[in-house]
Model the fold of this input.
Amino acid sequence: MPRDRESVAGHYHTPTTLGGVTIRLYDTSARQIRDFTPLTPGCVSIYLCGATVQAAPHIGHIRSGLNFDIMRRWFAYRGYDVTFVRNVTDIDDKIIAKGRDQDRTWWSIGYENERAFNAGYDALGCLPPTYEPRATGHVPEMIEMMRGLIERGHAYEADGSVYFDVRSFPGYLQLSNQDLDDLRQPDEGVSGKRDPRDFAMWKATKPGEPDWETPWGRGRPGWHLECSAMAHKYLGSAFDVHGGGLDLIFPHHENEIAQAKAFGDEFARYWVHNAWVTMSGEKMSKSLGNSVLVSEMVKNWRPIVLRYYLGTPHYRSMIEYSEESLREAEAAFGRIEGFVQRATEKAGRTVPPAAEVPPAFAEAMDDDLGVPHALAIIHTTVRQGNSALGADDKDEAIARLAEVRAMLGVLGLDPLDPRWAEGSGGDEELHGVVDTLVRLVLQQREAARERKDWGTADAIRDQLTQSGLSIEDGPDGPRWTIANR
Ligand SMILES: [Zn+2]
Done:
């Protein structure tokens, strides 16, 4: 780890490998939880298979980005210097078909949906990746990899396409624990393959499809090659963690491994896969329509609540989507948020997050990113904080608030983080101005009530409601929030 690290990340823990603490991750390849040892001390490199930008994202699409956002935040908290690559698959059969159907260019479909994905990631508080390479920007790197694989006898050209010879790579199907003899043979009816199980790295050009010049004629990338080529370019021949959804294990990740390792790369050292968002037990899909699109969901639910809902179940557990479960998540987050607000009011100032999270929270996170256990620590701390408020113990309440903010911050769920205030109508400064004004108006309503001028009191309340504010009368006086956010 670099020597200046401590001054850069002053409030972070000692990095795991040096401090006797070890992060553990479930490695799909080993089929068990393994201690994480970084390739380079103090650093972690992560490659996550990102979006195929054929349509706007629904919440199931964003879950993967969110799970790995929490992973990188935890590594950063533990003192690691994180390099996070998430690619954009901006060319594939569906994108091309959609362009044809809509009489548009394939790339206009890709760009439009890439923006929708980025808006979705951003709305739910995912930090931008260190690098976000597009497949079509890396054709030279793909050609170089194919040339190397052909030279080493792992790939061959046939009718302008380039195929990977799966029998030439003994480690094929190790990740998904399958046997090549049992593999169902794809009935593509493609001529030129030496074995029906060989997969296309490069597809020969067809009329009306985009294509690029190669030593084997014009054509376009198959899906799998881009990730091996881009991981090599941005993270080198070996890197720490490769991630993606469960559905990518086969064939995508098997094919990535075959290409990269046969090329001579060590490739990923840990394979981490996130589970899906399901509906009636099935993986959420586009056929559900627009109702679960992130752009629609954020109209009805506050983005921070969506993040809580999608980010707090364990990354390896399926989330069976229902409005009821989302409402429960909203109520649970409301209890945390309510404490943060009341304790902040009690403190009379913004209490900064504690420098360190409680040890039990850290242990839960170290253990294969055990967010559900970590969340239980947050709720316990909130209950302790509420008891302190009830007992009028200001110091104790402030101490618990600082802990709660530190823990929420690691999960990207601190309601006092200015990034969430933006979504509710402005930055922290503007919020302060509005707060002063609303309190002034509420004092006038209070005065009207005291002189039993009910008409005026009701009219003030109605006007505040009409301007989009929701007023709640509590034991400590009225509180306002922006309605429906
Ligand atoms: Zn990939």
Observations:
- Residues 1-18 have pLDDT under 50 and may be disordered.
- The longest strand covers residues 238-245.
- The CA atoms of residues 417 and 466 lie 27 Å apart.
